[in-house]
Structures are given as C-alpha cells and as structure tokens.
Design goal:
The complex is a heterodimer.
Chain A lengths: L18 E11 L5 E6 L2 E3 L3 E5 L6 H8 L7 E6 L5 H4 L3 E4 L11 H11 L8 H11 L15 H12 L6 E5 L7 H16 L3 E6 L2 H5 L4 E6 L2 E7 H5 L5 E6 L4 H10 L5 E3 L2 E5 L7 H8 L4 E7 L3 H9 L8
Parallel strand pairs in A: 4-8, 4-9, 6-7, 7-8
Antiparallel strand pairs in A: 1-2, 1-3, 1-5, 9-10, 11-13, 11-14, 12-13
Chain B lengths: L10 H18 L1 H24 L10 H6 L4 H11 L3 H20 L1 H6 L5 H35 L4 E2 L5 E2 L1 H18 L1 H13 L3 H18 L30 H26 L7
Antiparallel strand pairs in B: 1-2
Classes of the chains: A alpha/beta, B mainly alpha.
Organism (chain B): Cellulomonas rhizosphaerae
Keywords (chain B): Membrane, Transmembrane, Transmembrane helix
Protein name (chain B): ABC transporter permease
C-alpha cells in the first residue's frame, strides 16, 4: 500500500483545515431504476459532528456506502479526507454501516482480531491492547469471550462501535449507531461521540430518529427522497424555523397584554390566559420588558424554537417517519 | 496531526497476517471440521467393511481398486479417493468455495473488511487460497486416514500396479502420493467456479449448490456419447486419470492434459470472479 497522500498540513486553522467528507452531484441509480441518491453535495468540515438525518429509505446509507467506496456512484464524485480514492484514507476512517456485521461463531474479541489482521497498516504487536481498549470503551470487555451470536442487539451494536475504534481515527462514519440500543445505551453513544469530537475526530453520524443525536451535532444535513434538503451549521438550521412566543398573564390582564404585544408589531392569538404570536425579527427580551412596563402581571413567558422535526415537516410537508 | 502511520509491516507480512486469519477461519469453523471428519470416515468405514468381508463370497467384487485393498493397505487410499470423487469431494469444495465471498456478504462482514480497507483483489486472493487450502485438507484427510487404516487393517507391501508389474513399497507409496496430489489439483477448477458463484450472491447456500450442480452436470455430460466433442474440456472428464500413476509408465501427456484443463477452468472462472468482485456494488 502506498502511503496516504496527505494534502492537509499538520497544523492549520479550522477554516482551511479541509473537509472530512465532500461530495459533488453524488448520484446513485440502481439497476432497478430507483434513484436512491439524487445529486447531493455533502460537506462535512473537519472537526464537525455532522448529523446526517432523514427518514428510513431517504438515501443516507447508500450515500455512506458511496463515500466509503462500497457502492460506485452513477455520477458525481466523493472525497474522503480530501482524497478522491477512499482506499488511500480508509485506515484513518472508522465505520459502522447499516448495523454491525460479524462472524456469529467467533467471539467478540476474535472478530476484532480478524478485522485488525485485515488492516495492512495496523501494527500486529499492539492488536491485543488496542482491541482491549476498544472493548473497554464501549463497555464490552466482560463479554469479549462470548460468541457473537449470543450477544444481545445492543451488545452487537457496541461491538460494531468497538471495531470502528480499533485505531485512532480522523473520521468516524456511524450509520444509525443507536439502533437497537436502550435509552441508556443511546446516551452512552452520545457521550462517546462527544468525547471523540473533543479529541479532534470528525464524526458523521446518521439517524432516522431526529431527537436522538440532534443534541450532539455541530452540523446537520437533512435528506429526504434521495435529496439533501438542507445542510449547515446547527445554529443556522435552528434559526430557519419560525420561533413562537407564548405569554401567560394573570386573570384580567389579557386585554392589556394583547394591546402591548400588538404595539410591538405582533399578530396575537389568545387562548384563555395565554397569548401566542410568531416572534419574527423581534428580540424576545423586549416582550416581558414592555409587558412589565405596562403593569401586566406576567405569570409565564416562553420562546419556542421549532424542533428539527418541525423544520423537516415544514420543508417536506410530510412526517419524518415516512418511509419511501 | 494526521493519524496516518507509516505501514507497520511489509506488504508481504500484511498479506500473510490476513491469510493466516482466513485459514484459521476456514479450518477452525466447526461446520468445516465436521465435513473433514466425514470425509475421513470414508476410508475408515470402507476399510472395515472390506476387512470383515474379505473371506466371504463378496470378496473381490466392485471396482478395480477395491479388490486390491485387502492385499495391500496402500490401495485403501486410492479406493477411498475414488469413492469420494463423484459426489463427496465436489460437495466439500462447493461448500468451501461457495461460502468464500457470499458467506462474508451474508454475515455482513464483507462491507467491514472492504472498509478496513482490504483491496478487493487481495481479498479474493486470500479467499481463493483459503478455499484451496480447505480442498487440500479434504483430500489429505482422506489420504492420511486411508493410509493409517489401510496399514493397520491390511498391512502395506510392495505395490502391484494395474499393469501387473510390481514396484517397491517406497516407489508405490510415492505413486499413491502422486494420485492424491493429482486429485487435489483436479479440484482447483471447481474451486474457481465456486468462487465465481460466490461473488454473484449474498446467499452462500445458493453458491454452494450451484457449484455442486456444475460438477454433477459435468459428470452427466461426460456420459453422453453425442457430446464427445466437448468431453475433453469438461471439468470432471480427467478426474479419474489419476489411474495413470498406477501404470508402470504413466502417460504424462494424459496427466498434463488433465492439469491443463484445470488450469484453463481456473483461469477463466478466476478472471470472471475477479472482474465481477472488483466492480460490484456491495450492498450487503
């Protein structure tokens, strides 16, 4: 194997640090005629935790397979760690693709040893130690000697993560890493992603459950029906949706409060003691200030940003869990 | 800092690390061990049957090699290989080679090997060597158990060849070894066919069955006189030419021809497997 041609200097500012994953017009049309991925331009900056979101069947896994060189694009191109040839950089990439896959009759540790033996660039002398570290990291050390077929779904998923962590990686591609995990396991995966990101690893993590990983992401891309609807830094995505404000006041203050809000330019709807309005460009802090100034007895004040799921529904006009 | 490390080992060392892992996987798998044990049981059972029937009216019936076993234990090796060739060995080869790629695909391990990454050509080579090693182990287990059982039950003596000449025990043993090696090499074409089928599917049983069917169909075609024109090119046509080694002067032309046909099948189906596997989308 030739040494990976690293075009990225060792020390660079985040702006020029290059991209972990970039695609241009990436398209996959299967022989059945189905267009699984339709000309997407993915951009995962180095150091990002990129949440790759979309319902089941929206093309996330096929995109990931193309990025990793498992599936050949019909057209378009993909760069992995700035290399157009995935094989050159894959040793620096840990991957979990469409669920774990291991030999059922081998133990967890033997399965890791097998993968490590396959890695031309890994050091056989440190294989045992690295396997132990990876197993410990995912909390599987106690079950390392059991055959894989005896693992629970959650343990299988953990072994998949351990395989991705067999070496230090520049990029982790985790396709649905929380599948089959209980809430505790899901929390642990989130924690793991956060830890890895802090240590400088870029993480591309896909999920069909928006809420599950949304919290750890710095960047988000949303797919639907083979297209990338939206992508960018988290805060940019968040500010896309229309925020609403809800003010609750004491009995007898509703009319005064409504008047104050209308003066601020809001289109107020009233429901018993709660006044609601779209926030628009108004700074939220102005509202309680103005209300208190007018002598309104405010008992509750809340600004609601739309959830990612609501943004998705707004974009597509359909629920998130709609399979193709 | 980039995490790219200098290669920790030479390319050859890296290749053998994966090859060893593959051999452990193939030869350590319980299903495969049971297969080997089953094959090893053939000479044992055959030897025992011949031993207990040798003084009865049934003595001396059956194919040529069988009649000689009671006189010389070395022939138990030849007779056992002869019995296993039509079905048991093709079945074993079908399982080993049909499972090679399709087995990894169905377990979901193929995508992980490829993203390690293992080059597809290298993986195919490793898989081919693994399947060939298993084929060799299959033939060897018949031969070794045949030799031990034959020696124990009937003793080993100077060898009377099919031509009626007698050669020394050492020369005879060498000829039996040549028979075993020829049979082993005769199976390489079928290994290549199985490997190709294995790249076509994610269902290992399908690839295994198809491989066995190829061997059987080849055997059937070989019996149809109207197709005599294609007989020399058939996969199984030369399998029984191992008998050449039991003549005083083996016809090297016949033996060379048999091996050349195998080489051709290996080349054709090896190339097909390679072109398929190195270009296919891995969606398993």
């Amino acid at each position: 194997m030739t040494a990976p041609a690293t075009v990225v200097p060792a020390v660079t500012s985040p702006v020029t640090a290059g991209t972990a994953v970039r695609t241009q017009g990436l398209t996959k049309r299967f022989r059945s005629g189905q267009v699984a991925v339709d000309g997407i331009d993915l951009l995962v900056p180095r150091g990002a935790v990129y949440g790759f979101l979309g319902p089941n069947g929206s093309g996330k896994t096929t995109t990931i397979r193309m990025i990793l060189g498992l599936v050949r694009p019909t057209s378009g191109q993909a760069w992995l760690l700035d290399s157009p040839n995935p094989a050159d950089v894959l040793p620096r990439v840990g991957a979990l693709v469409e669920g774990p896959g291991f030999h059922p009759y081998l133990t967890g540790r033997a399965n890791l040893a097998r993968l490590d033996a396959a890695d031309q660039t890994s050091d056989a002398r440190t294989a045992d130690r690295r396997a132990s570290e990876a197993l410990e990291r995912v909390g599987l050390l106690a079950a390392e000697g059991k055959p894989y077929r005896q693992y629970s779904l959650g343990m299988k998923q953990r072994l998949g993560l351990a395989a991705a962590l067999l070496r230090r990686r520049d990029l982790l591609v985790l396709d649905e890493p929380t599948n089959g995990l209980d809430p505790q396991g899901t929390r642990e995966v989130r924690l793991l992603i956060r830890e890895l990101a802090q240590a400088g690893t870029t993480v591309l993590v896909s999920s069909h459950l928006l809420g599950e990983i949304e919290q750890v992401c710095t960047h988000i891309g949303i797919m639907s029906r083979g297209r990338l609807l939206l992508q960018g830094p988290r805060d940019v995505i968040d500010s896309r949706g229309v925020a609403r404000v809800a003010v609750t006041v004491a009995p007898g203050h509703v009319a005064t409060a409504a008047g104050v809000l209308r003066v601020l330019g809001l289109d107020v709807s009233i429901e018993e003691l709660t006044l609601g309005a779209e926030l628009g460009t108004l700074a939220p802090a102005r509202i309680p200030e103005a209300l208190v100034h007018a002598g309104v007895d405010v008992t509750g004040f809340e600004v609601r940003r739309p959830s990612l799921e609501q943004v998705f529904v707004e974009l597509t006009g359909e629920g998130f869990d709609v399979a193709r | 800092m980039s995490l790219a490390e200098a290669p920790a080992q030479s390319t050859a060392a890296a290749y053998w690390r994966l090859q060893r892992s593959e051999l452990r996987l193939v030869l350590g798998r319980r299903r495969n061990l049971v297969l080997l044990l089953g094959l090893a049981a053939v000479p044992l059972l055959l030897g025992l049957v011949l031993f207990f029937t040798q003084d009865t009216a049934l003595d001396g019936q059956g194919p040529a090699f069988l009649g000689r076993v009671t006189g010389n234990g070395l022939f138990l090796v030849v007779a056992s290989v002869f019995l296993c060739l039509p079905f048991l060995l093709p079945l074993t080869i079908g399982i080993a080679s049909g499972d090679a790629i399709a087995g990894e695909a169905s377990a979901g391990t193929l995508r992980y090997l490829l993203t390690v990454p293992v080059g597809r050509t290298r993986l195919l080579l490793v898989k081919a060597v693994g399947a060939l090693a298993f084929a060799a182990a299959a033939v060897a287990s018949i031969a070794v158990v045949g030799l031990i059982a034959g020696a124990a039950l009937f003793g080993v003596h100077d060898v009377t060849l099919l031509s009626g000449d007698t050669v020394s025990l050492g020369a005879g043993a060498l000829r039996v070894l040549a028979v075993v090696v020829y049979v082993g090499l005769s199976l390489t074409g079928l290994v290549a066919v199985g490997l190709f089928f294995s790249t076509l599917t994610e269902v290992p049983v399908g690839a295994m069955a198809a491989t066995v069917v190829v061997a059987i169909v080849s055997g059937v075609l070989d019996t149809i006189p109207a197709l005599s024109a294609i007989h020399p090119a058939l996969l199984t046509h030369h399998w029984l030419d191992f008998a050449e080694f039991l003549r005083i002067e083996p016809d090297w032309g016949v033996i060379g021809g048999g091996l050349a046909v195998q080489a051709a099948w290996v080349a054709i189906f090896g190339a097909l497997a390679w072109s398929r596997f190195t270009t296919a989308d891995v969606t398993s």
